[in-house]
Structure formats: structure tokens, C-alpha cells
């Protein structure tokens, strides 16, 4: 009885699960602004995950996948914990908390697949509705924050419209992913040609494009082109009768390509470049003879003169103590210079992501073989440095890697990275299998949008840490993977003509019809 009742409400649960994600982000942002503990929102997210797993496990007909996943995830953590104990475990609670964040993606994907298996098209419509509603909420928050003057901005120089959200990378990913998915759903509405649905569609396109235009990051800007041009191409392939929409979308894409030189993104990059040039001049002034430094570097590389390294270290010491005092304190002058290749390029010192990877790589090289296999604990990537001649005050430096795939490797080793990549590659395999087997059948507007969203998500995963290790970003990645599974393994294409069509309007999704909703 309970199982049947829960099954009948799957579409609502899935929609609500996605809708509350940006709301939780807003709550988290304001808690931070009001100096309230972040543990409250973390507990809320953990509660949401627990309810989702319990719901999915209850309605699932085959519970074996849950047992298998639990076993695999437990084994990976046990091996990771052993490696951490060998190195010296310092904060087990923080490490377990981080592991829960990391495994939310595979766990949530499994739950969403269970929901879609039980509810099929009805559940898929709930998922798509939730994605579109989440996008509308994000747009609304960005607009309200900008109007009220409470927008924290994407960058510290005041550039970029971020909204009441904490993580720039995550929001960039969310905007890039949600726009094409929402566009595709609206293009499959039965009554999509009605005036209100047309208005809503183009409002979504225009608002989404402007949101990413003013967001100011390169990946977000790429998201505009990917969504408009990508959906235009998909639409031309799937339904040539909609050629006018495709032409307009292509025009949108061309417009934003033309606007690149005058965009806020380029404006920020120019400001950053001008500042870097000024700082480079100050840095060069700290090195007495740059030409001699270059000659000494060549001597060091070729081992021509044993005295060259000592002289080189002395010449570069003022610059390195100024720009990377933390690395000098941790690894010593020579160690820091070797990590950075004895460079005098200020851009290298200010590339935070590269610095964190360099720290993690050095840390991994100095660790035992078990660490390379199963990773290091999260606490190892935070270092407290006491006040010294080159550190003005006691400071905590965070080196947690800002690239998801790199982060998975350093935190969970080769084993963890292979496991995660294998999980993701399975869904890529489904896409390739479907296109090879019957592209005409499987290549739908929804499938094309999932492909665009997946590519954008993977770009963010590789270049940032805003998806796999952040539940507010990973949830939409989960929706993409679950959608791919549904479109390839669950949807009954043979009976597509007789299946109940989606609701006529975005605003009528939850309206009861023949007692089914």
C-alpha cells in the first residue's frame, strides 16, 4: 500500500527535489552573510539525501544495485581510510563528511533511475519540470539580487552577476546545463505553439543568454553558444518544420559571438591583465638582473655550474617570499623554486588552481604508495602557518584542488578516480551505443539537449571543482545521467504515439488529469 502510494507521487517528489536545490543555495548564502553556522544547511542537504535514498529504496523492485553500490562505496572508503591511517589520520569526521559529498552523485543517480523505472514518462516529465523550475528560480534570484544591490558579484573587482549563491563555478555549471535542458522540454510540449508557451520559451532563451553573458566567466559564455547553437542544430536534425526557431537560435549564437569583444567577461580579463602587468613590473624590480637569472636557470637545467643554483636562489628569494610565502615556508626556498620551475612569471604565481595542483602533486610524491592508490585525507590540504618574517600573521592556507577529476585522484587515489571515471563512462557508452544502434530512433530533442548539457558539465568538472564535490551542482549532473539512462534503457519508443503526451503548458504540470496527477 505504501509502495503504491509512493510510486504514484514520484513525479512530484523528483520535481521538488530539483526545485529546492537553488533555494537551499540561497539559504546557505544568507546564513554565511549573517554569520550563522553552515552546518545547518549541510544537515538539511544530508537529510534530503537520506530521504531520497529511503524513498528510492522503498519503491525499487530490484534492490540488488543498492547493495552492490553500498558494498563498492564502503570498500573504497575502507581502503582510503587504511591509507590515511598509514600516513596519520588527523580528522576522520571531516574526511567522512567530504566522502559523503563525493558519493552523492552515484547514489543520487541510482535513486533517480529507480524513480524513472517505476514512473517512466510521468517521472521523466517531473524531472524536466523540476529542472525548468530550478532555472526560473535561479534567474529570479539573480535579478532580485541585482535590483536590490545585494549581488556579491562573480569577481572581486565587481564584475559579473552571481546572485545569492556561494560558488561561482557551481553556478556557471548550473546555468550552462539547465538552459538547454529546459529549452528541449519546452520544445516537446504538445501545445508548444500556443502564444503563452512561445513567450515562455523565448523568455527562457533571452533571460538565460543574458544571465550567462553577465555572469562573466568563460565557461558560462561558452554555455550561451552551446545552448543556442546546439539546440538549433538538434532541432534542424529532428524536426525541420521548426526551421524558423533554429534560424533565430543561430542568430542568437552569432550575436553573442560578435559581442565577445565588448562583453563583461573580456572587460574583466582586460582589467586582470592590466593588473598582472603592473604586478609583473614590481616583481621584475625585485630581481636585480633578469638576464642573468635566465642564464643561471639554463645552467641549473644543464648542470653546467654547481654554483649557479645557489646564486639563482639568492636572486629569486625576494620575489618568492613576496608572491608565494606559503610555499617557501612549507617547502623551503629551493623546494618552492623547483615546484614553480624557477619562474619569474607573476601569472604562474597567481594561478590558484595550478598552485593547488602543484601542492597536491608534491604532497602525493612525498606520501607512501598506498596514498597514490587510495588517496589522502582532506585535512592534509589545509595548512596553518604561524606568523614569521615572511608570513605577516598566522594564516590557514587551503590547497583543496579546484578541479574535480584532479581532486578525486588526490583524495581517493588511482582506485577512486578509476571507479568514478568508470561510472561516468558507462553513461557515455550508453549514448554511443544508442547512436550506433539506431540514431534515428534515439536522437530526440531531449537526447540532444542531454548531450549538450553533458559536454558542458564535463568541461566544468575537468576545469573546476563546482560539480562532483558540491551537491548543489552534482544534483543537475545526476539528472543528466539519469535522463540518458531513461532515454536509452527505459523509454518505450514503439508505443510513443499512444503514450500520454506531456502537459500542454509549463504552468499546468501539477494539474490533475483523469486522476493520474
Radius of gyration: 26 Å
Shape: globular
* Distance, first to last CA: 18 Å
> How many beta strands in the DSSP annotation?
2
Low-pLDDT stretches are: 497-517
Mean pLDDT: 90
| Strand proportion | under 5%
Q: SSE string, helix = H, strand = E?
A: HHHHHHHHHHHHHHHHHEEHHH
Number of helices: 20
Structural class: mainly alpha
Please give the order of strands in the largest beta sheet: 1-2
**Portion of residues within helices:** over 70%
The largest sheet is: 2 strands, antiparallel
Structure characterization notes:
It is a single chain. The protein has 517 residues and is mainly alpha-helical. The chain has 20 helices and two strands. Strands 1-2 form a two-stranded antiparallel sheet. Helix 7 packs parallel to helix 9. The longest helix is centred in the last third of the chain and has 39 residues, at 404-442. The protein is globular, with a radius of gyration of 26 Å. The chain starts with a helix and ends in a 27-residue tail after the last helix. Mean pLDDT is 90; it is low at 497-517.
Keywords, separated by commas or semicolons:
517 residues; mainly alpha; 20 helices; 74% helix; 2% strand; globular; disordered C terminus
Nutshell version of this structure?
The protein is mostly helical. It has helices at residues 2-8, 10-33, 39-59, 64-87, 92-119, 121-147, 168-187, 195-215, 218-238, 243-258, 264-286, 290-302, 306-323, 325-339, 346-350, 352-365, 369-374, 404-442, 445-463, 471-490; strands at 382-385, 395-398. It has a two-stranded antiparallel ribbon with strand order 1-2.
